[in-house]
Amino acid sequence: MIYGTGIDLTELSRIQTILAKGLKLPEKVLTPAEQAVFARYPLKRQIEFLAGRFSAKEAYSKAYGTGIGAAVGFQDIEILDNQHGKPEITRHPFDGPAWVSISHTDTFVMTQVILERGNL
């Protein structure tokens, strides 16, 4: 049974501008394991990766019903690719399965998160 669903749309140029200003968005949004992946990529892919994780965590917080804040923060959610390259939510505060989809264009990243309650 679906507990919650959330979507988010983020402009890649917004993330690129924040990175160009030298602000600490990667440290704020990405867990240490995600930061290790981020560091291995060239700049264009870093922007896509960071925008995707930012957007997916925003979508997660909407599905959770709280938004990003005191109840759930960026560091409470970890999204890593499996051995096939599919992003998976590997750590999160919800006590059921969590599903994520991340899709990019040249200008946007769109994400969806579904939280399930009960057995699969």
From TrEMBL:
Cofactor(s) the protein requires to work:
Mg(2+)
TM annotation in the entry: none
Q: Which UniProt keywords apply?
A: Cytoplasm, Fatty acid biosynthesis, Fatty acid metabolism, Lipid biosynthesis, Lipid metabolism, Magnesium, Metal-binding, Transferase
Q: Which GO terms describe its biological process?
A: fatty acid biosynthetic process
Where found? Cytoplasm
Q: Which residues bind Mg(2+)?
A: D8, E58
Q: Give the GO cellular component terms, alphabetically.
A: cytoplasm
**InterPro entries per the UniProt record, alphabetical:** 4-PPantetheinyl_Trfase_dom (IPR008278), 4-PPantetheinyl_Trfase_dom_sf (IPR037143), ACPS (IPR002582), Ppantetheine-prot_Trfase_dom (IPR004568)
Which major enzyme category is it?
A: transferase
The GO terms describing molecular function are: holo-[acyl-carrier-protein] synthase activity; magnesium ion binding
Q: What is its EC number?
A: 2.7.8.7
Domain 4'-phosphopantetheinyl transferase span(s) in chain numbering: 5-109
Tell me the superkingdom of the source.
Bacteria
**Which reactions does this protein catalyse?**
apo-[ACP] + CoA = holo-[ACP] + adenosine 3',5'-bisphosphate + H(+)
**Function of the protein:** Transfers the 4'-phosphopantetheine moiety from coenzyme A to a Ser of acyl-carrier-protein.
In the record, the note on similarity to other proteins reads: Belongs to the P-Pant transferase superfamily. AcpS family.
How is this protein named in the record? Holo-[acyl-carrier-protein] synthase
Tell me what organism the protein belongs to.
Answer: Lactiplantibacillus pentosus (Lactobacillus pentosus)
